[in-house]
Amino acid sequence: MADPSAPIRFGIIGCADIARKVSRAISLAPNASLAAVGSRSAEKAAQFAAANNFPASAKAYASYDAVLDDSEIDAVYLPLPTSLHVRWAVAAAEKKKHVLLEKPVAINALEFDKIVEACERNGVQFMDGTMWMHHPRASKIKEFLSDSESFGELKAVNSCFGFAVTPDFLENDIRTKPDLDGLGALGDVGWYCIRSILWAADFELPKFVTALPGTILNKAGVILTCNASLHWEDGKVATFRCSFLENLIMDVTFVGTKGTLHMHDFVIPYEENKASFTTAVMSGFNDLMTGWVPKPSEHTVMTDLPQECLMVREFSRLVADIRNKGAKPDKKWPTISRKTQLTLDAVKESVYNGCKKVEIVE
Fold first, then answer.
1. How far apart are CA 63 and CA 14, in angstroms?
2. Which residues touch 259 (CB under 8 Å, ≥6 apart)?
3. Are 277 and 254 in contact (CB under 8 A)?
4. Which fold has domain 8-132?
5. Which of 41, 158, 171, 344 is surrounded by the fewest CB atoms within 10 Å?
6. Rounded Cα gap, residues 281 and 151, in angstroms
7. If you write DSSP's letter for every residue of 105-171 in order, what string do you get?
8. Model pLDDT for residues 35-45, shown as the tens digit of each residue
């Protein structure tokens, strides 16, 4: 029987750039440890381990399968191209490894369902890598959005995430290749926008989505910029824009009948140890209409650990409960991943079909 106090031992499958950040998070998390990394060559795996301060006890493998075959590994983090997710996430689950999967979770919901089925059949925990949800700022914001006196009823969300890539990125990055990460900007940065919208709506799926004019595709047909609107039966509306071709922006605004909340860094906070948001409640103008009464207020939330570390800590806590207490995997995480994927799939369908309305069927 495993030592209940033993940290969750992670193997990392692939040496993508994002794995640098998550490796650091695993090393900082009090209930996790870096145990192995696998690449397509032992040399690359060893170089990655050395560059990212893996402990001397960590193993560097020349294949992904070797990580999965290591009986000492409890969980794997998968930062592979999206087209490889279903293969390797299913393989990990079959080897009884808990799965922390980078977003977007799959090319489409049908592929994701195969991952969920494998995880459920093998009793392993699944979680996607949407890090901002684990920052304590998120829980503070949720308190405000749930306050009927301060925020009221959610009516609208506007979300935008974009950054300006280099010519080399446009030519060579996997996120511009249809056979690797064919969802492009929609899958990469659009995922965060969609998640922020669904999160605010308590993961009630919209009735339908419509892509808006302004989509930009590369020569291979991969999305570099797109916009969409989401619509609910009760009248809620959300819009988002995602792009690889614009200056860095990570804005989201939640609009209620009584209050409004703004974030300007909702995916990656300006600073690692703190994050802010602004609220306005029952806003109006002064007598001369020269200013706001009352003025919006800024709120700052401190954290001792980076948000990606808090994600690893929560994932590891769930895994430890399964290992030590016989707990069942928490179905919350695959459920919200699937709803995000379903919405993304509908937006993609609308983008490639002349901005037609696409209904979402769960």
1. 9
2. 144, 147, 150, 151, 152, 279, 280, 281, 282
3. no
4. Rossmann fold (3.40.50)
5. 171
6. 7
7. --SSHHHHHHHHHHHHHHT--EEE--GGGGSHHHHHHHHHHT-TTTT-SEEEEEEEEEEEPPHHHHH
8. 999 999 999 99
Where are the chain's structural domains? 8-132, 136-307+341-359
Residue 185 contacts residue 224 (beta carbons within 8 Å)? yes
pLDDT in tens, 184-193: 999 999 999 9
Task: Please give the Cα distance from 328 to 127 (Å, whole number).
Answer: 14
Predicted local distance difference test score (pLDDT) of residue 362: 85
How many helices (H) and strands (E) would you count in the chain? 11, 17
Candidate CATH numbers 3.40.50.12780, 3.30.360.10, 3.40.50.720, 3.40.190.170; the one for domain 136-307+341-359: 3.30.360.10
> In this structure, which amino acid lies at residue 134?
H
Matching residue, tokens 């056979």: 179
Please say whether the beta carbons of 154 and 204 come within 8 A: no
How do residues 232-253 score in pLDDT, each as one tens digit? 999 999 999 999 999 999 999 9
CB contact at 8 A, 99 and 12: no
State the catalytic residues: 103
> Helix 307-325 to helix 18-28 angle, to the nearest 10 degrees?
60
Contact 177, 220 (CB under 8 A): yes
Q: Is the pTM of this model over 0.85?
A: yes
Amino acid identity for residue 148 in this structure? S
Identify the band that residue 5 occupies on the pLDDT scale cut at 50, 70 and 90: confident
Strand 8-13 to 32-38 pairing: parallel
Angle at Cα 215 formed by Cα 214 and Cα 218, nearest 5°?
Answer: 135
| Helices 109-122 & 85-94 angle (0-180, nearest 10) | 10
Question: How much is the CA Rg of the chain, to the nearest whole Å?
Answer: 21
The Cα–Cα gap between 324 and 319 comes to 9
